[in-house]
Every structure is written in structure tokens, then in C-alpha cells.
Design goal:
Blueprint: E1 8-12, H1 17-28, E2 32-37, H2 40-50, E3 64-68, H3 74-88, E4 93-96, H4 112-139, E5 143-148, H5 161-181, E6 186-193, H6 202-206, H7 210-216, H8 226-237, E7 248-251
Parallel strand pairs: 1-2, 1-4, 2-3, 4-5, 5-6, 6-7
Length: 259
């Protein structure tokens, strides 16, 4: 499939999990992709994995490069987008996948620093990248932005006021950008994953008590795979979703429907 042939994409949080799977999916379907991460070593490891083969099962994904940046910092987000434009000529697709987990404590125990850290990473960062990229998209006739929100943006999980609020804000940011940018032919949507097996959720999945309880609450009985979320993102980023904007696509194995 070459749905993204000739298109340029930026995937934040591309060093692991959903971001890395999405970069692979977009590149496999023809896009030139820049992945972003905050840590040089992790970014380099992801690029190496995306461009190697074991001799039997080809994993080679052409057209992927990387840029280190902390997108929660305005100047770094702006510089990231500028580097991608310089490298690829334009930005057609942005996938805001960068994010961090909450502190996992009751709201009464949540510190100002913990709150701000999560909001900066999960909400301010995506806004900064989307705003900078949308300016380029508007100049070039349009584009697509897909934000990686969460089921926590639609329902509150106890002891995660910081994470819930950041993802709920990202849901509303998605809708707001969709309304503001539609006149520039820019579509903005989000995916809301449930429990997906990534480095951020591995501790939950492997916990002998927590893991089974989570799986029991999911009608499909398992954690999702990052590639399954990447497939949903690819749909939203493609012309197959040309009349879809301002929407939240839940990818959670039926958990939200069963509540």
C-alpha cells in the first residue's frame, strides 16, 4: 500500500511504543518520516531497529530519520518543526504521540511539580508542535494532525488526576484545532487508546495482581499491540478519512463500551 507516497510526516514520541509503530506504518506506506524523542540514545536505538533486518524477517523501513527535542519547551518544538521542514521540504502529517504517565497518587498528594510535568508533556507539547506545523500546512494547502490521547481523556481513573486532565485537555484541543484549522484544509483527529503493551504500561501488564485485573476488564481479554493503534492512526491520517475531523477514535478492545 502507498497511501502516503510523496507525503512528509513528523511523529513525536517515535522512540518507542505507539509512536515507533506509527512511524513504521507510515513509512511502509510510502511516507518520508521524521521521528522525535527527548533522549538521543533511545532515538538512535529506534532508528536502528527501524532500519535493520535479521536475515530472515525483513524489518527494513526506508525513509525514516530522527531529531532530538523536548517538545514541551516552546523553542525546541519550534526548532523541531523547522528542522523537519528543512529536511523534508514540508509537513503533511503530524502524529503527536509523545507523552508520559501520571504520578499515580491521590489528588490530595499530587505536587505542583508533578502536575505541571505531566501537563507540559501531554498537552502543551502537542499544542506547540501542532501550532508550528499547522502554519506550514496552511501555507501548502492543508494537512493532517493526529493526536494520541487516551481512554483516560474520556473517563477518570482514580489517582491519575494529572494524566486524566492532560488527556482530557488533549481531547478538547483536538476538537478546538479541528474547528480553527478546517478553513486551511487541515483535519485534526485523535485516537484514544486503552491499555496498549508499551514500555509505559509494561509494569502494569507484568504485575501478577494488576495485570490479570486489567485484562479481565477488557472484553477482548488482552492488552492491545502498538501496531493496532498505528493502523487506526494511519486511517485517520489518510485520504480514507477525508470527511473526518474533530473525532476521537477509541482503540481499547471494547473496554469503554463495556463500562
Amino acid at each position: 500500500m502507498t497511501r502516503f507516497g510523496g507525503r512528509s510526516a513528523l511523529v513525536t514520541g517515535g522512540s518507542s511504543g505507539i509512536g515507533k509503530a506509527t512511524a513504521a506504518r507510515l513509512a511502509t506506506e510510502g511516507a518520508r518520516v521524521v521521528i522525535n524523542g527527548r533522549t538521543p540514545d533511545r532515538l538512535e536505538a529506534a532508528l536502528s531497529e527501524l532500519s535493520t533486518t535479521d536475515g530472515y524477517h525483513t524489518q527494513r523501513v526506508p525513509g525514516v530519520s530522527g531529531v532530538v527535542a523536548d517538545i514541551s519547551r516552546s523553542e525546541e518544538a519550534e526548532a523541531l518543526v523547522a528542522q523537519v521542514i528543512e529536511r523534508l521540504g514540508r509537513i503533511d502529517i503530524v502524529v503527536n504521540s509523545a507523552g508520559i504517565d501520571g504520578a499515580g497518587v491521590n489528588a490530595l498528594e499530587l505536587t505542583n511539580e508533578e502536575w505541571q510535568r505531566v501537563l507540559d508533556a501531554n498537552l502543551t507539547g502537542p499544542f506547540l508542535v501542532a501550532r508550528a506545523a499547522a502554519r506550514n500546512m496552511a501555507e501548502n494547502g492543508g494537512g493532517v494532525i493526529v493526536n494520541v490521547a487516551s481512554l483516560n481523556g474520556l473517563e477518570a481513573e482514580p489517582n491519575f488526576a494529572d494524566y486524566n486532565s492532560s488527556k482530557g485537555g488533549l481531547v478538547m484541543l483536538t476538537r478546538s484545532l479541528a474547528v480553527d484549522l478546517v478553513k486551511h484544509n487541515i483535519r485534526v483527529n485523535a485516537v484514544c487508546p486503552g491499555y496498549i503493551l508499551t514500555p509505559m504500561t509494561a509494569a502494569y501488564a507484568n504485575d501478577p495482581d494488576v495485570g490479570p485485573a486489567i485484562r479481565q476488564a477488557i472484553p477482548m481479554g488482552r492488552f492491545g499491540d502498538p501496531a493496532e493503534v498505528a493502523a487506526a492512526i494511519a486511517f485517520l491520517a489518510s485520504d480514507d478519512a477525508s470527511y473526518v475531523t474533530g473525532e476521537m477514535l477509541v482503540v481499547d478492545g471494547g473496554r469503554f463500551a463495556s463500562q
